[in-house]
Design brief:
The complex is a heterodimer of chains A (202) and B (299). Chain A has two domains: 1-97, Rna Polymerase Sigma Factor, Chain: A; 116-202, Arc Repressor Mutant, subunit A (Orthogonal Bundle). Chain A has helices at 3-21, 25-47, 50-67, 77-96, 127-146, 149-160, 165-172, 176-194. Helix content of chain A is 69%, strand content 0%. In chain A, helix 2 packs across helix 3, helix 4 packs across helix 7 (165-172) and helix 7 crosses helix 8 (176-194). The relative contact order of chain A is 0.10. Chain A contains eight helices and no strands. Chain A is an all-alpha fold and 202 residues long. Chain B is an alpha+beta fold and 299 residues long. Chain B folds into two domains: 1-76, Arc Repressor Mutant, subunit A (Orthogonal Bundle); 88-298, no CATH class. Chain B is built from ten helices and seven strands. Chain B has helices at residues 3-14, 20-32, 34-51, 60-73, 83-94, 149-153, 175-184, 186-191, 204-217, 281-286; strands at residues 100-109, 125-129, 164-168, 195-196, 254-259, 274-279, 295-298. In chain B, strands 1, 2, 3, 4, 5, 6 and 7 form a seven-stranded mixed β-sheet that branches. In chain B, helix 2 (20-32) packs across helix 3 (34-51). Classes of the chains: A mainly alpha (202), B alpha+beta (299). The interface between A and B is large, with 74 and 59 residues.
C-alpha cells in the first residue's frame, strides 16, 4: 500500500471506529470486511488449521467490537487491531495447549488439524507441482507452529502480514531492536526445522 | 568486519537490501567465515520457504457466519478508566516544558519457576505502593502473596495513585540525566546499600533479548515478557525479586524500578537486573527506541 492510500485508509478507519463505538452495525460490517482476510491470515498462520483459525478470527472480532470503546486513537486502528489479534492468539494458543505439530496422520477425514491447502487458495500449474507445492507449504506451516509464540508472532506479522519493523514493534510493545532480533532468530530456527526438506526451496 | 556486526546486517544482505560498500564488506566476510555463511544460508532457506506460502483468505460463507455471530454476541462498551489513570497523562499534555511525572511503584515479590512449557507460571507477588512520606519499610521483608497477573493487566486499581517521588524536567534521556535521576530517587536510599549503577547500562540494548532467550531456555513462554521489563532469575529459589508490569501503566509517565534476585555464587552477573526506566507515552508511541532501560547491579 502506498503512502497516499495508507493515509486514506487511516482516515476511513478513524471514522468507522467512531461510528462503531456509537453502535453503528453497518460501520462494524465495513471494518470487518476491510480486515477479515488479514485477521484470518494471521489466525491461520498462528494456529495452522482453518477450523481453529476461524474460531480465533471470531474471538478477535468479538474482542474488537467489545473493546472498541476503549480505543483512544493514540495509535492507528490497524495497529490496535493487530494488537488485539496477537493477544487473543496468544491466549487462544495457551488455552488450546496444543503440541506444536498438528499433523494428524491417523485422521482420514482430515477434520482435526491438517488442512487441504488447495481448498482456500487458487492453485496454478501442473497437478504434480500443485501437489508438491501443497506439501511444501504444509511443511512450512508446520515448521511455523514449532516456533515458540514469541518468535512466531513477529515473524508472521513482518514476513507474512507485511508489517514494517516499526509497526510490529508498536503492535507488540517491543523495541524495534528486539523485533529484529526475534525475527532473525525465528528465521534461523525455521530453517533448522526445515533442514531435512530444504531441497524444496533451493 | 566482525561476526557480530555482520549478523546485524545479514538479514538485509540476504534479502537483497544491502548494497554498496556494506554489501561488499559482508560478502567478503562471508567468503572467509563458515559460521556466518551457514547463518546466511539458513536465512535464505527461511526466506524462500516463507515466500512459498500462498495467501489465505476467509471464505465468504465463514465470513458471513463469523460476522453474524460477532454482531449477535457483542456490543461495544465504553470502558471507563479510573480517574487517576487519566490524570498523569493530562498533566503530561498540559505541561509545556514536557515535564515528566514519575510515579514510583515498587513491587516486591517472589517468582517461582513453573513446571514446564504450556502451563501457567505461578508468580506469587506482593504489591507495595510506596507512599512518599511513609516510614522506610524494608522492602525485602515483605511477605509474598498471590497476585493475578490477568487482573493486573486490566488495570483494575483501587485506592490512591502511586505518589510521584521524582519530577524530572529533562526530555533528553542521556546517561547523565538518568544517573542524576537515580541518585535522587527516594527508593535509592532504601536499596542503595545493595545496588549500584555499575556498568550494566551498556547492556541495555540487548537486555530484553537476553531475557527472552533465558526464558525460552527454561522452557517458559516468553510471551509474558512482552509486558514485563524486569526479569526475575527463575533459576533462583525464593529470593529478592521484584517486577512491575509495564502494561499496568500505559498512559502514565512512570518510572518503574524492578530488582532482581542476586546471582547464585558462580553465576554470571547478567542474571542480576534491576531497572529504572522513564517513559513518555507520547514519545514511546512514536518511537519505542526512545524508551530507555537503565540498570543497576549488585555491589
Amino acid at each position: 500500500m502506498d503512502e497516499a492510500s495508507k493515509s486514506l485508509r487511516q482516515q476511513e478507519d478513524a471514522v468507522l471506529v467512531e461510528r462503531v463505538a456509537a453502535g453503528d452495525h453497518g460501520a462494524f460490517e465495513e471494518l470487518f470486511n476491510q480486515y477479515r482476510h488479514k485477521v484470518f491470515s494471521l489466525s491461520y498462520r498462528m494456529t495452522g488449521n482453518t477450523s481453529d483459525a476461524e474460531d480465533l478470527c471470531q474471538e478477535i472480532f468479538l474482542q474488537v467490537l467489545r473493546k472498541i470503546g476503549s480505543f483512544e486513537g493514540r495509535s492507528l486502528f490497524s495497529t490496535w487491531l493487530y494488537r488485539v489479534a496477537t493477544n487473543r492468539s496468544r491466549d487462544y494458543l495457551r488455552g488450546k495447549k496444543r503440541t506444536p505439530n498438528l499433523v494428524s496422520h491417523d485422521d482420514p477425514a482430515g477434520e482435526s488439524g491438517h488442512d487441504d491447502y488447495t481448498g482456500h487458495v487458487k492453485m496454478t500449474g501442473e497437478p504434480e507441482t500443485r501437489a508438491l507445492s501443497s506439501e511444501a507449504q504444509a511443511l512450512v506451516q508446520d515448521a511455523l507452529l514449532e516456533l515458540p509464540v514469541s518468535l512466531r508472532t513477529p515473524l508472521v506479522l513482518h514476513e507474512l502480514e507485511g508489517l514494517q519493523y516499526q509497526e510490529v514493534a508498536q503492535t507488540l510493545h517491543l523495541p524495534v531492536g528486539t523485533v529484529k532480533s526475534r525475527i532473525f532468530r525465528a528465521r534461523i530456527k525455521l530453517a533448522e526445522i526445515l533442514e531435512p526438506h530444504k531441497e524444496h526451496w533451493r | 568486519m566482525s561476526c557480530r556486526k555482520v549478523k546485524k546486517s545479514l538479514v538485509r544482505y540476504v534479502d537483497g537490501d544491502l548494497g554498496g560498500k556494506r554489501g561488499d564488506e559482508v560478502r567478503e566476510h562471508l567468503d572467509g567465515c563458515p559460521e556466518c555463511r551457514a547463518l546466511a544460508e539458513k536465512l535464505e532457506v527461511s526466506s524462500a520457504a516463507l515466500s512459498s506460502l500462498r495467501p489465505v483468505e476467509l471464505s465468504d460463507a465463514a465470513s458471513r457466519r463469523i460476522l453474524g455471530a460477532v454482531q449477535a454476541a457483542g456490543a461495544p462498551r465504553k470502558t471507563l478508566l479510573p480517574g487517576w489513570l487519566r490524570s498523569p497523562t493530562a498533566l503530561a499534555v498540559a505541561g509545556a516544558g514536557a515535564a515528566l511525572i514519575l510515579a514510583c511503584v515498587v513491587v516486591v515479590g517472589v517468582f517461582v519457576a513453573g513446571p514446564g512449557p504450556g502451563t501457567e507460571t505461578t508468580a506469587p507477588l506482593v504489591t507495595e505502593e510506596k507512599a512518599s512520606d511513609s516510614g522506610a519499610t524494608d522492602l525485602f521483608d515483605a511477605e509474598p502473596e498471590g497476585i493475578d497477573v490477568q487482573r493486573m493487566k486490566t488495570a483494575e486499581f483501587h485506592g490512591p495513585p502511586p505518589t510521584p517521588v521524582v519530577k524530572a524536567t529533562s526530555t533528553n534521556y542521556t546517561e547523565q540525566s538518568l544517573r542524576e535521576m537515580f541518585e535522587n530517587l527516594e527508593v535509592k536510599k532504601t536499596f542503595g546499600q545493595r545496588y549500584t549503577m555499575g556498568n550494566a547500562i551498556s547492556l541495555a540494548p540487548s537486555f530484553i533479548d537476553n531475557v527472552t532467550t533465558q526464558y525460552e531456555d527454561l522452557g517458559q513462554d516468553p510471551a509474558m515478557l512482552e509486558s514485563m521489563i524486569s526479569f526475575i532469575t527463575t533459576g533462583e529459589p525464593a529470593l529478592l525479586a521484584c517486577y512491575v508490569e509495564k502494561a499496568l501503566f500505559r498512559g502514565l509517565d512512570v518510572t518503574i524500578i524492578g530488582l532482581c534476585a542476586p546471582p547464585r555464587s558462580g553465576s554470571t552477573t547478567r542474571l542480576t537486573r534491576a531497572e529504572a526506566w522513564v517513559m513518555d507515552p507520547v514519545r514511546f508511541e512514536a518511537d519505542p527506541n526512545t524508551s530507555i532501560v537503565h540498570f543497576l547491579e549488585m555491589k
